Amino acid sequence: MTDHDHDHDHHEDEMHEHEHGPLAELVTVRDWLRYAVTRFNREGIFCGHGVLDTYDEAVWLILSTLALPLDRLEPFLDACIPSDERQQIFDNIERRTVERIPTAYLTQEAWLGDFRFHVDERVIVPRSFFAELLENGLAPWVDDAENVNTALDLCTGSGCLAILMAHAFPNARIVGADLSDDALDVAAQNVADYGLDQRVELVKSDVFSGLTGRRFDLILSNPPYVTAEAMDALPPEYLHEPRMALAAGDDGLDVVRRLIGKAREHLTAGGFLAVEVGHNRHIVEAAFPELPFTWLSARGDDDMIFLLQRDELPGRAD
Q1: 282-296 pLDDT, tens per residue?
Q2: Is residue 56 within 8 Å of residue 26, measured between CB atoms?
């Protein structure tokens, strides 16, 4: 038997297996949902990119692969899936399970509330407690959303918070700044998708380096804040994300220190800085015991975001 014959037989076996494996037996969305949840549970995937458990992850992956609305599972549960689409679902489930690629990268989309964003491995998957706070225009910290003229999203990544800010503050010019050219390319695509090219300006900047002389009514940032210890313990899903979007030195405060040190000179009178730091409140407070942090609560989780008014920030009064 030649090698060629052997390869041919092997290929036939594979096809044969598929005909009698999941591709043949799993017919409806319901079937594939059950299969995906079992597969995810058995392999112990980690759900940390916008969903809480393997069921929600499976719904997201399957509906998104089939280009179906993510909030309407019921009408489609008994829909029969043709074989070419089954192959796509099977491949995505395998890659999610074996390679631990986040669903957002497999489907190239992520959501914050009702807002959809294009994402790929050039940017961190959007997830931010700011999304909920921006639904209310950052009230009560912003008296009147219509009076915000300028706002900055520092470390903008995919541009998601800059876009949410443009919707929350209808009269504001928004700047989204990032050090990564790749991230700015993705952000530009998202800004264009939302038709916001005239209102959202994207700037390459290492923290404030590209923003000399510019001032804003408010500065939001969801910067890298993962400590060295936490980086070493991250589930494999996060290792697909750009390291520079996560790691921030030994104590996770490399970027936060620079934000606090320089924000005052980039804020208008009455402006404020708000920064998301995850579970690092104790580290932040220990590093800056003299600062009167206000901690904001969102989605039942307190203490993920600190706020400092301009005159509470270090720096000269001017």
Answers
A1: 889 999 999 999 999
A2: no
